[in-house]
Amino acid sequence: DAGVIQSPRHEVTEMGQEVTLRCKPISGHNSLFWYRQTMMRGLELLIYFNNNVPIDDSGMPEDRFSAKMPNASFSTLKIQPSEPRDSAVYFCASTTGTGDQPQHFGDGTRLSIL
Amino acid sequence: AQSVSQHNHHVILSEAASLELGCNYSYGGTVNLFWYVQYPGQHLQLLLKYFSGDPLVKGIKGFEAEFIKSKFSFNLRKPSVQWSDTAEYFCAVKKAGGSYIPTFGRGTSLIVHP
Q: N or C: which end of chain B has fewer CB within 10 A?
């Protein structure tokens, strides 16, 4: 079991730049979640996919944020243009989506926008 | 909408002290309950879960939690903490069944002094 794989682990970039975060869920999991974690707000759900389809994106803060899941084994979270307040740790999680299973989290991407 | 409240934001203990972290939720239906742990610099990992049956749930590393339905609570306990238990602890609740999205609490930061 390779677990949820996220890349990059760390990203430092200047404001205004485009940032793309990547996630590979656990094989066989059909639900994928993107979370943002900050000291101020804790763990926030940004978007949730089920069978590659975005089900709930109400947590996406602004139009600068977008997420895609082109296939069952890959998802991206893009921020364009990035701002300093986007600095956070972004986690991807997956689950089988049967409703009774816990989420499995990736190691996260620590994003710093200068 | 369901919500999760973790009353203790920061807890500082000495080794061998007993631990109890509070978690209350607001949802009147059947729920699944989880406790996750996040060690410094790492991703969230499942500590224990409750779906049905015995309301006293045993997890890894000597942790346990008790589901008290009448109090809408799922408190986490450990009789004797260790320095290695220093971490952030998250309670999560979701409606039982289906592809519901879990709601996470803000987390409790536990520091254990050797």
A: N
Is any Cβ of chain B less than 8 angstroms from the Cβ of A25? no
Beta pairing partners, A67: A77
User: Distance (Å) from the C-alpha of residue A40 to the closest C-alpha of chain B?
Assistant: 9
* Burial state string for A63-78 with b = 16 or more CB within 10 A and e = fewer than 16: eebbbebeebbebebe
Structure confidence by residue, pLDDT tens digits, A67-109: 999 999 999 999 999 999 999 999 999 998 666 678 899 999 9
Give which of A85, A98, A101 is closest to A36, Cα–Cα. A85
- Predicted local confidence at residue A40, as pLDDT: 83
Q: Can you list the positions of beta strands (E) in chain B?
A: 4-5, 10-14, 19-21, 24-25, 31-38, 44-50, 56-58, 64-68, 73-78, 87-95, 103-104, 108-113
Sign of the CA dihedral running B34, B38, B43, B45: negative
Q: Does A70 contact B at CB distance below 8 Å?
A: no
* Residue partners of A44: CB distance under 8 A and separation at least 6: A35, A36, A37, A38, A59
Contact A42 B105 (CB under 8 A): yes
